[in-house]
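Example for tutorial group B:
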């Protein structure tokens, strides 16, 4: 099912997160600290070596790059705190990332 030269590589991951924060409001003391949370991510990597094998060979010979991928990833982070008024605030958020990945 999986091979070293497969064109599309799906992945998922997750883990523990620690965020540091500093909150200040008008006429209120500044509050700072940290909170723990979690994150999950999932994405796809597209192997670019198959589109130009000569360039892939040169990348390995010149720089030691085994594979080059184009990737897109979605990530969700959650880390809750209480603000100065007692309301819960999620310091995390959702992001979408993309770029090049070089495997050495």
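The residue assignment follows.
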């Amino acid at each position: 099912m999986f091979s070293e030269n497969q064109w599309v590589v799906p992945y998922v991951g997750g883990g523990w997160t620690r965020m540091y924060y500093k909150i200040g409001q008008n006429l209120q003391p500044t509050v700072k600290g940290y909170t723990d949370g979690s994150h999950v991510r999932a994405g796809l990597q597209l192997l670019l070596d198959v589109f130009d094998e000569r360039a892939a060979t040169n990348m390995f010979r010149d720089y030691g790059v085994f594979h080059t991928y184009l990737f897109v990833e979605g990530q969700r982070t959650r880390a809750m705190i209480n603000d100065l008024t007692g309301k819960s605030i999620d310091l995390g958020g959702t992001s979408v990332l993309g770029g090049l990945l070089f495997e050495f």
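The beta strands are 8-23, 31-47, 67-78, 80-82, 88-90, 93-103. Compare this with the pattern of hydrophobic and polar residues in the output above.
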